[in-house]
Amino acid sequence: MPTYPVATVDLAALKHNLKRVKQLAPNSKVMSVIKANGYGHGSLQVAQALADSDAFAVARLNEGIQLRQAGVEHDIVVLEGIHSIEQLQQAAELKLSPVIHHPSQLDYLKAAELTTPLAFCWLMIESGMHRLGFSAQASQQAFEQLSQSHNITGPVGLMSHFANADTKGDSRNQKQLETVYNVAQQLGNPQLNLANSAAVLSLQQSHQHWVRPGLMLYGISPFDDVSATELGLQAVMTLTAQIISIEQVKQGDQVGYGGDWQAPKSMRVGTVNIGYGDGYNRQLSNLGQVLVQGQKVDVLGRVSMDMICIDLSSLNEIEVGQEVILWGDKELTVEQVAKQAKTIAYEMVCQVSPRVKRNYING
Ligand SMILES: *Cc1c(COP(=O)(O)O)cnc(C)c1O
């Protein structure tokens, strides 16, 4: 018997989704993005399942350090880079590849005397998102500085990031591509690395030397109007909990904090051991649905920290101990639940807290 709540992570599905990336971008190396604890799935287990990746990307230095210390030997790119000389030294010693996106990081490189020079590093080009990176004008000087740095022995690649790749046919994607192409040409066509999941799936021109998907590896669609199944992806995480109490409420009884839900009739209400303290989004109060024995039933009242209440009036034979699926079934995908919560599936999976045990299957 599992201890609920549990996030079951299907390692075979992860591997399948990586194959799907390679099928879509057969001429590109794959940098698998496993930041934020592998989008909530467990970064080390994800890294092991995705060992056929050409490199991994994380957001922060400490995420890279953790993976190295756990024995991951792939190239690991740190997307936010380093923020001091000490961090640069630490990155270099552990053979982590920092992204250089800001002049301050060039200064650290200039000032440092690294015992192990960087074997690979990435220059971030700002091409339309205005979040991180050097402008097209500033990129030439930054690139030269990196190429000539005594602290870098390996190649310098160019990275950029799309702001609107999840909107197919958006002209802003073409604009960003043109900006990057122009910069690349000026710099003698270094290795390009542009495509997030949405671009891997819908913007073939962005498949360059590298692609850099995250979300799709976890079997989640980045598009509002196309399901993961339609994209040939397999869901990786199934989040389940169990009914720990069943109560017969009377007409007019109020359920949960604030009494936001009131029973319209005498009926059975189940209490399930998952709440916002586990990452079950509180926006699902009085809105969400869960699956019980294959049937969708409503969340009643507010989501508490550790529990939710659900409507069992349409189900007869349910007993305490019954498993409940919060998401990850074909009938209730994480994308659908995210929509109910007025957020995105990225946030749903990232929010699954450490209190929820991860159970790895099909390894
Ligand atoms: C998170 C991230 C990705 C992966 O994006 P997905 O939409 O999850 O595929 C790629 N590049 C950068 C810079 C990121 O921050």
What does this structure look like?
The strands form three sheets. The protein has an eight-stranded parallel β-barrel, surrounded by five helices. Strands 10-13-16-15-14-17 form a six-stranded antiparallel barrel. Strands 11-12 form a two-stranded antiparallel sheet. It is elongated and about 75 Å long. The chain has helices at 11-24, 35-39, 43-49, 61-69, 85-93, 103-111, 136-148, 171-186, 197-202, 334-340, 345-350; strands at 6-10, 29-33, 55-58, 75-78, 96-100, 121-124, 156-159, 192-195, 210-211, 237-249, 254-255, 261-262, 267-272, 289-292, 295-300, 308-311, 323-327, 357-361. The protein has 363 residues and is of the alpha/beta class. Helix 7 links the parallel strand 6 (121-124) and strand 7 (156-159). Helix 7 (136-148) crosses helix 8 (171-186). Helix content is 28%, strand content 23%. The relative contact order is 0.14. The protein binds pyridoxal-5'-phosphate (PLP). Pyridoxal-5'-phosphate is lined by residues 33, 35, 79, 161, 196-198, 212-215, 222.
Q: What is the strand tally?
A: 18
Q: Beta-sheet strand percentage?
A: 15-25%
Listing every helix as H and every strand as E from the N terminus to the C terminus, the arrangement reads EHEHHEHEHEHEHEHEHEEEEEEEEEHHE
Q: What is the gyration radius calculated from CA atoms?
A: 23 Å
Main pleated sheet? 8 strands, parallel, barrel
Mean pLDDT: 97
The number of helical elements comes to: 11
For the biggest β-sheet, the strand order reads 2-3-4-5-6-7-8-9
Bound molecules: pyridoxal-5'-phosphate
Structural class: alpha/beta
Shape descriptor: elongated
